[in-house]
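Subject — a protein and its fold
Fields — amino acid sequence, structure tokens
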Amino acid sequence: MKDRDSNLTLARIIIYALPAMPLAALTLPLYILVPTFYSETLGLSLTSVGAALLFVRIIDAINDPLIGYGADKLRVGFGRRRTLFALSLPLTAFAALMIFWPPIEATIWYLAFWGAVLSFGYTACLIPFYAWGAEMAGDYEKRTTITAWREALTLIGTLIAIALPFAIGTHNANGFHGLALLGIVIALTLPLLGSLTIWKVPEPREYTKQAVGFTEGIQHLKNNRPFLRLIAAFFVNGLANGIPATLFLYFVSDYLGAPEMRGPLLFLYFMCGVAGVPLAAFIAKGTSKHRAWAYGMLAATIIFAFTPFLSHGDVMAFAFICAMTGLLVGFDLSLPASIQADVIDIDTAASGEQRSGTYFAAWSLSTKMSLALAVGFAFPLLGLFGFQPELSTQQSDTSLSALAIIYAWIPALLKLGAVALVWNFPLTEEMQRELRSKIESH
């Protein structure tokens, strides 16, 4: 294990992580900017947009496990991780261009179709990419280094996704707009950086001793108690993050009355997130991954709970909240991904097959379903209180109060639940090292 990990240079880790930038650049707009663009700019109803995106996530319920299972069973000379990743790059790039540069007469069916295509390509790209990273190293701390670099570049890609659309604007569907520019950038950079990774980063060594059937594999998943506990926390925390992500633009525009600050505040949030990644790695090294993640979620909950007490025009106070919670999102991104790799070791040691694809399919589905539930929950609930998405609409005091509570306090309660799940997480560094010794001794 040590010999293999010692050959994993920092340059190779960074090259591996590069595709995270364009992948992230399409993720944030799909959940924050696309619903707003299709409802406000193209004029589709908020309810239908939410239904279309929920439909896409239901399709994912089929795609994710099938792709994850196939990613583990695919064995060709080029590599089971690299092959599927390479095949998915052009499809994902083209679908991103179509969803971000729709025709002005685009209907809800256009959004549903291309959203489903993009989601399929994204899943086929992301699952082998993350499985690749999990299998690059077996060391407890080295895995955090890999995920830290990948998630730091993810945040940089997110910053690009914020800067480009807001630099040009997204209020005019005619001709060329900010989302269209972002679509072009993704369509060009994803295949380019993905090809560089395929060229320079070798396929990770596989430690499979025996093949596991589908039914038997499901039983191993069910018996992996740390996995069940982690994915539960992952889902709850994902929902806690997804609700404010879905409502962020409306909160800044309608509650704070500062629509011109939507882009700068988003940029501030994710810029601070880049700084939070090394901070999370540092704290995890002094304690443990799961306890450091719990500290981050707990701190974010306390800070975010003050948000509904803000008033119209309190932009600077909200900017401080964005900066502090942005710093802590680095914990949410880097640490769970590293714990995921450790949890997979339990299955590999028990089943005899290295099934990282299956596990990351489960986490991918959990992430998407939590974000879809956030949209499907937040938008209709806001509608019940009379909230209207149009920028020109004067919102009632009741709808604005509901917006603030749904935006901040419901996510805060959810995060406390996630903290409870991971506080005394049962997989320690010593246990993980014993698992790796068992896996690699054969």
